[in-house]
Structure formats: structure tokens, C-alpha cells
Amino acid sequence: MEQHLTLADVPFSNRNFWEYFFGSSYPNAYDETSDTCVIDLLGEPSAELVAWADELTQYHDGILEECDGYLEHPSTLETMLPDGQQFKIEFHPGDILFFLDGTEIGCTGPHWELQKIPYTYLKTLLPNEPLFLLLLPLVQLTAVDTHHAEETLLQILPKLFSSEICASLVRCLICGIENIKM
Predict the structure, then answer these.
(1) Beta 36-37 vs 30-31: how paired, if at all?
(2) What is the CA radius of gyration of the chain?
(3) pLDDT digits (tens, 9 = 90+) for 10-51
(4) How far apart are CA 22 and CA 29, in angstroms?
(5) How far apart are CA 182 and CA 111, in angstroms?
(6) Is residue 68 within 8 Å of residue 102, measured between CB atoms?
(7) How far apart are CA 14 and CA 70, in angstroms?
(8) Burial letters for 77-87: b for 16+ Cβ neighbours within 10 Å, e otherwise?
(9) Model pTM greater than 0.85?
(10) Helices (H) and strands (E) in the chain — how many of each?
(11) Which of 118, 79, 127, 82 is nearest to 99 (CA)?
(12) Which residues touch 49 (CB under 8 Å, ≥6 apart)?
């Protein structure tokens, strides 16, 4: 059954959402120097997390064969951005799709398309940390932006994940966002 979420539904205390989102949203988040990716750092998902994600995405056996993992009525998260644009995320069993004002601007699935939003825009969303993180997979970093992004993530991620993994997680995310080797 599809769900309609808002920012109020994804506070930092909603660990299932954030573990699922980070584990699914960074297809190229790999730090070659440590041979680590986001999934390695997050660890094996618990049965509770898998069940929660299956409910959110409406996953069931055969869904990928039935409709290539895309649903007519997926679960969504919608919110208005401070500049008045409508931001929507669709959670499909085989992909996460991102929209601004009804136009698809990115996806994380097998035909991933990211790096659509300049970091200069994304950092204007702070101090709304959940909104910042929801748009992070879409960000395009320049060399000038990287240090600020790292520092910001090092402040936010310990609110979600064990502090022991946060520095490595930031390196993986930055590598994935830049799509370069660090």
C-alpha cells in the first residue's frame, strides 16, 4: 500500500528511513583508498529494516519481473522547498526518483542520474538538515564546495549513525557525489 510522507515523517529518530535512504541513494559512493562503500559501513540490514523498506517500496517477490520495479502508485515524500518549488521523492522497488515541480530530475536505480543541483543551492537549505540530506544525492560539488560539504556532513551524520563510521561514510559520500577517486 502506497504511503504519502512529509518531512515530519522522517525525523532523525526514524532510523529505518535514513538507513534505507543512505543505503539506496548512493550508487557510486565508494572510497577506493579504503575499499569501502556506503553499504559496507551501514552493515547488513536487520530483518526489521528490510521489512520496513519492503513496505515503503511495496516490494514483493516478482515485482521486478512484473513491472521492472516501477509502480504506478509508489510511496512518496513531498515537501515545498524554501524557494517555492515542490520537491517529491518516489520510492519504487527498483529505484528512487526525484522530482522538482513535477519534472523528474534524478534517480538512483539502474540508470542512475544524479548531480543536478549545485551545492551552493543545497547549502541554503541549512539549517533544515533532513531536507539537506534528502537532496544530497542530487548535488553537484565543485572543488571549492567539497570542504564545506565534508564539514557539514561530519556535523549531521552523527545524529543518524554511529560516530565510529561517520568519517568513513563522509569520504564515501563525497567520492560518490564527485564520482572521482579520493
Answers:
(1) antiparallel
(2) 16
(3) 999 999 999 999 999 987 788 888 999 999 999 999 999 999
(4) 10
(5) 24
(6) no
(7) 25
(8) bebebeeeeeb
(9) yes
(10) 8, 9
(11) 79
(12) 16, 19, 20
